[in-house]
């Protein structure tokens, strides 16, 4: 009875950590997509690229960033999973000497592909915001529209990331927006300087 209760609690904890790694991947992926592609397309705008070149640059950056984020998340969660398997195996071998060892099941382990897939899709969803803003805006409104939508998206993502915990929403929003605007200012200036 006690063994099954402990096993149930352990499974609940593992399920929670797997969901947490997927949620974390989604939030970070969207944030990186918003900031990275805003920086890329506004840097390209600073370099006076035409609409077609902006679109190609944005799509290339979006796909490269999504693949990079997914790969990094897969490596990170795979490493956590390997450590988890090692820990569970050593605990099971110790418990086998005194009580029935709990069975290892795939459903008990972190899922690297879930986190990688979430990271990939959320990066693309975040990246589409500045990409659509810059390609659908008229030339005179590109910078303003992209910067405003980026700021709004980062605020919403910051609020979402604080749900269910005691982290300050205000501080999280300020950090997100500050990083976003510093990124687009740097890339826009760099694009402008290099285009001369």
Automatic annotation (TrEMBL):
<dbReference type="InterPro" id="IPR008217">
    <property type="entry name" value="Ccc1_fam"/>
</dbReference>
<dbReference type="GO" id="GO:0005384">
    <property type="term" value="F:manganese ion transmembrane transporter activity"/>
</dbReference>
<protein>
    <submittedName>
        <fullName>Integral membrane protein</fullName>
    </submittedName>
</protein>
<feature type="transmembrane region" description="Helical">
    <location>
        <begin position="143"/>
        <end position="164"/>
    </location>
</feature>
<keyword id="KW-0812">Transmembrane</keyword>
<feature type="transmembrane region" description="Helical">
    <location>
        <begin position="176"/>
        <end position="194"/>
    </location>
</feature>
<feature type="transmembrane region" description="Helical">
    <location>
        <begin position="113"/>
        <end position="137"/>
    </location>
</feature>
<dbReference type="Pfam" id="PF01988">
    <property type="entry name" value="VIT1"/>
</dbReference>
<feature type="transmembrane region" description="Helical">
    <location>
        <begin position="21"/>
        <end position="42"/>
    </location>
</feature>
<keyword id="KW-1133">Transmembrane helix</keyword>
<dbReference type="GO" id="GO:0012505">
    <property type="term" value="C:endomembrane system"/>
</dbReference>
<keyword id="KW-0472">Membrane</keyword>
<dbReference type="GO" id="GO:0030026">
    <property type="term" value="P:intracellular manganese ion homeostasis"/>
</dbReference>
